[in-house]
């Protein structure tokens, strides 16, 4: 005998499912060449549309990169580039020393997992545009322990 689910339960389930999925970001980030580590996860505290993280001018955004290092390193250098029409444009970071105020305690050790957290301003002077943002963490050996590419859209 088949039991029918009351319509009130179905409606409640549908509302919960829709609310849960509405808060999910489906934009896809990609790991880029990190010869001395690997990105495990990434989160950005900003809304997104189907394929880009939305960066609203005049707001602050927090980026959280979970990674592991395959080398020992006394320092971590933060580098960021925006790719506009395929050309890399260096971005000035508020804190280029990944060992200070970022959640990483240096020295970084081989085989350890780390969480890099950076809060940055989307300046009102930035142009409205879609671009790819490459964020990388360099080690003291000249290599890279973490690298991600984020598709972003800067909006008013």
Secondary structure layout plus pairing:
Blueprint (H helix, E strand, L loop, with lengths): L6 H16 L7 E2 L5 E8 L8 E4 L2 E11 L6 E9 L2 E4 L22 E10 L6 E11 L4 E12 L1
Parallel strand pairs: 3-9
Antiparallel strand pairs: 1-9, 2-4, 4-7, 5-6, 5-8, 8-9
* Rounded radius of gyration (Å): 19 Å
Give the CATH class: Mainly Beta
How many angstroms does the end-to-end distance come to? 57 Å
pLDDT averaged residue by residue: 86
Explained architecture:
The protein has 156 residues and is mostly beta strands. The protein has one domain (25-155): Immunoglobulin-like (Sandwich), CATH 2.60.40.770. Helices cover 10% and strands 46% of the residues. It contains one helix and nine strands. The protein has one helix at residues 7-22, and strands at residues 30-31, 37-44, 53-56, 59-69, 76-84, 87-90, 113-122, 129-139, 144-155. Strands 1, 3, 5, 6, 8 and 9 form a six-stranded mixed beta sheet that branches. It has a three-stranded antiparallel beta sheet with strand order 2-4-7, with no helix packed on it. The chain starts with 6 loop residues before the first helix and ends with a strand. Keywords: Disulfide bond, Secreted, Signal. Belongs to the NPC2 family. InterPro entries: Ig_E-set, ML_dom, ML_Npc2-like, NPC2-like. One of its GO terms (biological process) is intracellular cholesterol transport. Residues 1-27 form the signal peptide.
